[in-house]
Amino acid sequence: MSFQRIREKLNILADAAKYDVSCASSGSNRKNTNNGLGNASSMGICHTFTKDGRCVSLLKILLTNHCIFDCAYCVTRKSNDIKRAAFKVQEVVDLTINFYRRNYIEGLFLSSGIFKNADYTMERLVAVAKKLRLEENFNGYIHLKSIPGASDELMREAGLYADRLSVNIEIPTKEGLKALAPDKNHEDFIKPMKKVKNEIIQYKSEKKIIKSTPKYAPAGQSTQMIIGASNENDMQIMYTSNYLYNTFDLKRVYYSGYIPVSYDKRLPMIGTEVPVLRENRLYQTDWLLRFYGFDVREILNPKHPNLDLDIDPKLSWALRNLNQFPVDINKADKMLLARVPGLGITSVNKILSARRFRNLNWEHLKTIGVKLNRAKYFITCNSRYFETKDYSASQLKQIIVQSSNSKHKKAFTGQLALFT
Amino acid sequence: MQATTLVYDGSFNGFLTTVFEIYEKRIALPIIKKETDFQKDFFSETDTIISSSDKAKRVFKGIKKLLKTKGCNTIYYAFLSEIIGVENTLYNVIKYAFTTQQNIISDYSNVEVLALSKIARKVSREKHRMEAFVRFQETKDGIYFANIEPDFNVLPLINYHFTKRYADQKWIIYDLKRKYGLFYNLKKTEIITLNFNVTTKKKDWFTLNENEYKTLWKEYFESTNIEERINTKLHIQHVPKRYWKYLSEKQP
């Protein structure tokens, strides 16, 4: 193959794929049983990190950036004047195998612009995965995009070769989608998700009876929403996300701060700052829902439609619910401990293990590595001394914000500094 | 009371044998040292331990009964850190388990247990990094070759991962610091030592395509970057500078 030509294509098609933030290679249990190449690591491996700090785990490329759609928020939209390119199926296969053999990557993340029609595009994505699995004996990770509108038959085949399938709903609200991507409609995104969910359930139940039933998308499906392109609030985003988790058993919803790529009047101007902090708060909320036993309505509701930027969502919730504290470190159950600001799941697990040996006091908590500067206002332990003052929520917030060294602190103290 | 210095050969079996001897000879104040770290002084008693796999097995069985697989892993990982004096922390934790006859491996409010778990975590992190940052280059005789200089002796730990993963290609991972490596010959993985100067700098060892793939990978890495989100601090936190030497994408 001609390396020069491949280099050009790779530059164009990797650049166009970078706005998809998902790079997870975890959650699959595909084993190297045929003495072939590759063995999916269930915890996932990041082989390097981009200069903006994101993990690089997969070879993430578009098959082509030719597209018949004209979605305002997308770089590869039809009306955008950019260089176009397309890979041949075999070229993607060769690249993946050769990168994998050198331990550059965990596998392939293949997406595509829509050329001709949905089925034509999906067929080619499936062809790459099929070739990798059947001809190259490849057992590494494959993430395919579900192309909205592709036939059921193709979607079924895709899941047989891929570890994960995803379809990005991109805009969290129906109204936003109508304004920014008039060619697409909400149903197009929902349909493939539903299809994949049902297939996963069906294959799983068949596998219980017939052991040789093949795996169907063992790492599940995920989606992505762009944050800050239309003017949705945090409540709308998280309620959508919650709905997707509950309805389609998604493994992950990704939140991607909108990076201005267009002079379109409907969108934030080029040069607008990427809302990274807001993105971070949304991820924190996502974690609270999935691992900390919170209900989305506790964190976001019509009274609090947006997340605080200066404090994390758990602390914000705790300050609104001071009546539930303090919590006794030596008695409280796991889910209650997990609600204490400053305690992560790792600390909670350590506390649970350590307290089987003795009642814990402040010293013990410190050795274990609990961040007390925040937690101490919300807990009691085996010690006569504890925070006895009754602070109001706003006092407490001020104390904690001042004593903490948040990496985001600059963003908030900068303005204050003018007046002091 | 006088301390007794016990000198062993540096192997895991040797260490376990040492623990056996401490109990057998009822040594009250043992200090365990590797041959290579040991300098004789005139004031303490010394005893040289001869490794015995039978004795080692008996001790290991005893440990496993109390600390289960998780505890055994913690102990083995921490041992591979090769941190000077780690044997004594290990011994104290094993003694704590034998005395209390309990699984104390998660008693994190005990200082020694916590210290051990932290060391094991460090080793485990280094293992994971090596699984991520090893970069193979294809030699002219079809062997995928990589060299590493890990902070800890993680080759025994990454063996399984690479053997499973690259079952259809020959490969070598060579530890330059400890001067030994793993060689997979399509059937099984063996420990090897090479008696020539090992380097990946020699261009004529490798296939012509090797450089092309390196370039492709490097350019791919460049084009995944989103200029608007640049965050160098986070980047370096994830890929500490001491690992850059392995990564072709970080070479000028």
TrEMBL record, chain A:
The protein's required cofactors: [4Fe-4S] cluster
Radical SAM core domain location: 62-199
PANTHER family linked to this entry: ENDONUCLEASE/EXONUCLEASE/PHOSPHATASE FAMILY DOMAIN-CONTAINING PROTEIN 1, TYPE II SECRETION SYSTEM PROTEIN K
Species lineage: Bacteria, Pseudomonadati, Bacteroidota, Flavobacteriia, Flavobacteriales
TM segment ranges: none
Listed Gene3D superfamilies: Aldolase class I
GO MF: catalytic activity; iron-sulfur cluster binding; metal ion binding
SUPFAM superfamilies named among the record's database cross-references: Radical SAM enzymes (SSF102114), RuvA domain 2-like (SSF47781)
Name of the molecule in the record: Biotin synthase related domain containing protein
Keyword line: Iron, Iron-sulfur, Metal-binding, S-adenosyl-L-methionine
Keyword Zinc: no
Automatic annotation (TrEMBL), chain B:
Annotated DUF4130 domain residues: 87-249
Protein name per UniProt: Putative DNA metabolism protein
Organism: Jejuia pallidilutea
Species classification: Bacteria, Pseudomonadati, Bacteroidota, Flavobacteriia, Flavobacteriales
